[in-house]
Amino acid sequence: MPVELHRDWIPVALSADLPAATVVPAHTPSGILALWRSESGKLTALADRCPHRGMRLSYGFVRGEALSCIYHGWSYGRTGQCQRIPAHPDLTPPAAIKAASYATEERNGVIWIAQNEPQEPPPTLDGFKPLRSMPLAVDADRLSPTGEVRTEFAGIDMLLLIVATGNGEAVAHIMIAASASKDDCVAASRAAEGWRRDCERLALEDRAS
Ligand code: FES
């Protein structure tokens, strides 16, 4: 089923780029979320703003099953609820201290986030496997109004999941045919860089004309 029919879900990262006990900024059309994986491997997406003084939670660090803010160390669980305030170790943090959390799903090596109530799971993208994610200085609509590009790189079938990230920029999460060999992946990855250069050059020329 085409990706554009799954607008409830936004592809934000490839699983391989988020090992256990790490946090990354997840780019979505409406801003950045803090996407983290606990030490036991569970995924969580939280608003990228600490409820204490607004530091980006994506700058924080993961310890065990919690994400800690880099500024004063307040830590948050998978629901976004504050679990611990280091300056007041005996205090149970009030329920109101909570970061907004979002549904996440991981399918076929792609991590998806839902910012509303999803009606169905994200697509499985059968026949493809993840290759790499690539930022581009190109407006997402220019690349694909549907959020999906089917093409060939180095003669290999590719599926590009395009996400707008604001300011005329985008991220492409690149999937390659599941049958691709290691050498195919290297060739397709190089071809993808050439595709990015071409897209960015054309966008620049259009802006200048
Ligand atoms: S701003 Fe995050 S703990 Fe203070």
Structure description:
This protein is mainly beta and 209 residues long. The chain folds into 2 domains: 3-103, Rieske Iron-sulfur Protein (3-layer Sandwich); 128-208. Helices cover 15% and strands 40% of the residues. The chain contains 2 helices and 14 strands; from the N terminus they run E-E-E-E-E-E-E-E-E-E-E-H-E-E-E-H. It has helices spanning 140-143, 182-208, and strands spanning 9-14, 22-28, 31-37, 43-47, 61-63, 66-68, 75-76, 82-84, 101-107, 110-114, 128-136, 148-153, 156-166, 169-177. The strands form 3 sheets. A 6-stranded antiparallel β-sheet has the order 1-10-9-4-3-2, with no helix packed on it. It has a 4-stranded antiparallel β-sheet with strand order 5-6-7-8, with no helix packed on it. Strands 11-14-13-12 form a 4-stranded antiparallel β-sheet. A hairpin with a 2-residue loop joins strand 2 (22-28) and strand 3 (31-37). The longest helix is centred in the C-terminal third of the chain and has 27 residues, at 182-208. The chain is elongated, with a radius of gyration of 19 Å. FE2/S2 (inorganic) cluster binds at residues 50, 52-53, 55, 69, 71-74.
In short:
The chain has 209 residues and is mainly beta. It is 15% helix and 40% strand. Strand 13 and strand 14 (169-177) form a beta hairpin.
